[in-house]
User: What shape does this take?
Amino acid sequence: MSKPRLQYVCTNCGTALTRWEGKCPSCKQWDTLEEQLVNKQSTTSSKSQLLKTSGNMPVRLDQIKERQHSRIAIPNDGELERVLGGGIVPGAITLIGGQPGIGKSTLMLQVACQLPLKVLYVSGEESAYQIKMRATRITKKTDNCLILCETQLEKILHHVAEQKPDILLIDSIQTIQSIKLDSPAGSVSQIRECTFELQQYAKQSDIPVFIIGHITKDGSLAGPKLLEHIVDVVLQFEGDRNYVYRILRTIKNRFGSTDEIGIYEMESFGLRPVTNPSELLISPGDEHLSGTSIASTIEGVRPLLIETQALVTPLVYGQPQRSATGFDNRRLNMLLAVLEKKCNLYFSQQDVFLNIAGGIKVSDPAIDLSIVSSLISSLHDIPIDKKICLAGEIGLSGEVRAVNRIDQRIHEADRLGFNQIIISKYHKKGIPKDLNIQVKMIGKISELLEILFT
Ligand code: TYD
Ligand code: MG
Assistant: This one.
């Protein structure tokens, strides 16, 4: 029997080296190489086995049969369905990442019980009793879901072959271990090996597989970046544990758009999909407060009206503070510079704090106009009418630029009962007529000042 071999694997990118080095030559990260024992016999035997089979044969593109079966719908969960691009694709492997305690297991168990299919839920983290306790909180219908508490990949695949489920769920990839490798569960090589095996299974059997993965402190999925390349869909479940809202974001999707988000609310009986988020993201009440305004943004295909809040206060320490939550700090600095240069509004002796309500991160540039309005409103302490919303990108010379899908934004604002929407005058088409809402078009920030603050 051959001797087990030692190798050094980078925990960041998965590169394997024969000797230890302080810095990974591939991803240039320091101190990421970990010692691992490779069971040479098993790898060489699996290699010789692979060589014996002829594998797949090349097929002419026009001779490949099209699949008849379509996507699997998810009852009572339009959010996940939309985030996945319109349902579960047969044979797709989906990775769901998120911080511990955010609700990944809850979401998956909920989906497992709702589907009218046979689901195998494999848990390496909790006992069957613990899962039962959670399931009783979430739902009454649990007759279609099988629970398997197991961490060894080969045993899991054996049960899968026996039970032939319609959907396989793995909670979590960091707890699963293959006997082919000697490294501990959660190590880069184990994660890679197990995901690869599961992917092979998904592709051969056409059964969708969902894998839960933990994320590291800096927010990336634990394990090599490679993992994201193996799977078809990567979803990130995020949100502040202290808030009830959770956001399911698409990072990668081979079968749909990647800028889709799903919003959930964590309740005592599980996660509730929020189908009408705009109504939740705008604080109720009629009183007009300075420093807040409403932005009309688009996340994925859905228009979302969000409250932006700014606090501008006289400088406390020598250095002015600029702090933004849910918005890019550099962009905030840029907007402040534009206000100084183009509108003679000076923030250099002010601390500026910015917040997007609901713990949501927004990347839609149309939020600029609302941010600028909140900043000026707080600076002058003049409230903005809560029945006005704004959508427009701001350029470096202070111009208000056109943004995409303006018709959807206007329709949504109208539906929610806003009286006025302020947009760019450069929109040539797509402005809906016959609506109750008044559409004001501006070309420069100085015109915004006239409308809102005079
Ligand atoms: P969990 O799904 O275990 O998180 P993860 O798998 O991502 O680590 O979620 C745990 C949290 O959710 C925990 O703080 C309790 C809370 N929770 C509810 O508020 N309501 C519920 O119905 C359930 C099942 C959990
Ligand atoms: Mg869990």
User: Anything to note?
Assistant: The chain has a mean pLDDT of 86. DSSP finds twelve helices and 21 strands in the chain.
